[in-house]
Amino acid sequence: MSTWAQKYRGATVEDLDPPPALSTKPTELISYALMKAFEMDYSHLTVLSEDTRALLGYLNISRLKEMLKSGAARETDYVEKAMQKFQRSGKVYKVITMDTPLEELESFFSRGNDFAVVTDGDRRFVLGVATKGDLEEFVKRRPA
């Protein structure tokens, strides 16, 4: 049995019970987005288009705090100034769904990703966000 198979024993992203994604819009004030993130204790917010609800990018709250501290952004700026945009052209994205095995999620994180946007299979709906920390907590609390 592989190490991953022993660690996860067939578990999927759904077993992490990821919280629903908390989204913001590019035209919302950074102060409002920060308030939402703090209220829910979220480390990342997805950024959706106001018109199409398409996933445009995300806000990494730790990075945002650094930007505010350094003066690179202000709380009165719009989210679009601080968001990290997804590069769409020429890049193949790994689709992470509730059915994705945790071995694949760990592999995704091992390639430098901090979090995964969990979608339906057609990538039409953002269902939640899973972080490396969620995966680590799952392993800690799972009986051996």
Give a verbal description of the structure.
This protein is α+β, with helices and mostly antiparallel strands and about 140 residues long. About 40% of the residues lie in helices and about 20% in strands. Strands 1-2-3-4 form a 4-stranded mixed beta sheet. The radius of gyration is 16 Å and the shape is globular. The chain starts with a helix and ends with a helix. The mean pLDDT is about 85.
Largest sheet: 4 strands, mixed
Strand adjacency order, main sheet: 1-2-3-4
Topology pattern, helix = H, strand = E: HHEHEEHHEHEEH
Strand content of the residues, in percent?
15-25%
- Mean pLDDT, rounded to whole units? 87
Task: Give the termini separation.
Answer: 14 Å
Q: Could you outline the blueprint of secondary structure elements for this entry?
A:
Layout: H1 3-8, H2 13-16, E1 23-24, H3 30-40, E2 44-48, E3 55-60, H4 61-70, H5 79-82, E4 84-85, H6 102-110, E5 115-119, E6 126-131, H7 132-141
Parallel strand pairs: 1-2
Antiparallel strand pairs: 2-3, 3-4, 5-6
Write out key terms for the chains shown.
144 residues, alpha+beta, four-stranded mixed β-sheet, two-stranded antiparallel sheet, 38% helix, 18% strand, globular
Care to give the gist of this entry?
With 144 residues, this protein is an alpha+beta fold. The chain has helices at 3-8, 13-16, 30-40, 61-70, 79-82, 102-110, 132-141; strands at residues 23-24, 44-48, 55-60, 84-85, 115-119, 126-131.
